[in-house]
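Co-fold these.
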Amino acid sequence: MAADATAAPQPPHEAIDRGRGRLIVLAGPTAVGKGTIAEYVRTHFPGVWFSVSMTTRRPRPGEVDGVHYHFVEDHEFDRLVEAGQFLEHAVVHGAAKYGTPRGPVERIISSGRDALLEIDLQGARQVRETWPDALFVFLAPPSWDELVRRLVGRGTEGEAERERRLATARAELAAQSEFDEVVVNDDVRRASEELVSLMRSGRADR
Ligand SMILES: Nc1ncnc2c1ncn2[C@@H]1O[C@H](COP(=O)(O)OP(=O)(O)OP(=O)(O)O)[C@@H](O)[C@H]1O
Ligand SMILES: Nc1nc2c(ncn2[C@@H]2O[C@H](COP(=O)(O)O)[C@@H](O)[C@H]2O)c(=O)[nH]1
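Predicted complex below.
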């Protein structure tokens, strides 16, 4: 059929009103594989939008500013807290500060796309207060011993920092019933696909 020259022009794909997007919160204990799953999803599901957190911790080898985190000094982080620029923020493992910049998330949600946050339990609890219709997903290890193996095997923390992280991990594992869904990271591909499928559930347009 010939195109109707009198028809109103169609908006570009991104501008089609798909309503508001959904906020998805992924949390779980240290070394369970949140970053690994995030990397897999970024590579295999490029349509998924990730929030890039801000942190005062130092970059690890291979971490890129603006991709894995926005790395900032303590005084800059505190200034942004004062200015109300975070959706949530917390001191994690009793050490560095982490926060989700509010603006980018609100813009993505308003544009009709979903936004995925990878944050700790304290942050997830704050988001539940302000954004109760978000989807809360807990990433769990197959076992405690496997979690410890992953943390030690990653080799990015010394003994004292590992102990601190494992203490937090016990409290986080005890809180998994607060979440809407629990995904066990027994296999990176399987767990990533389960997460994406949960994100897409109920969204016919994804
Ligand atoms: N399904 C899996 N099977 C085996 N090893 C895994 C699996 N998922 C992740 N790992 C490994 O576990 C270690 C920790 O993973 P990762 O750094 O992604 O954890 P994390 O949850 O982001 O940790 P943190 O919260 O401390 O930043 C890494 O060495 C990673 O390669
Ligand atoms: N409350 C928030 N927690 C965050 C955020 N970004 C990351 N995190 C969590 O911090 C720990 C440690 O991360 P690491 O990269 O130093 O190993 C981990 O549990 C992350 O999920 C955030 O913006 N807010």
